[in-house]
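Standup notes
- DV: blocked on the single-chain target, sequence here:
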Amino acid sequence: MKKLSELIKAYYQIRELKEPTTTEAILWATSELGEVCDVLLELRGGWTRNHPEDKRDTVDALVEELADVLMMVMVAGHTIGSDLEEVLIARMKEKARADLTE
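- DV (later): unblocked, structure below
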């Protein structure tokens, strides 16, 4: 299976999306995090922002928004020449003092 960073690159190419700058990617990630918060508020009940007909109060909606955050954080890493998947694995290995990939 392809690495996540390769899949995101292919996704951008297929959708003919403009590659953001680092700042733009972080701003998009922040925007997506706001959507995570919207879903969390809706899941708690009693809160719906702006358009009740667009209510997204399911765990599936939450997971989709979290995935969008992850993608934009990965894109931000890409813009500075870093594969965050590899960095995260190395950081966990360092902190756990064990090879977690075996």
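- Follow-up: The two ends are 17 Å apart (CA to CA).
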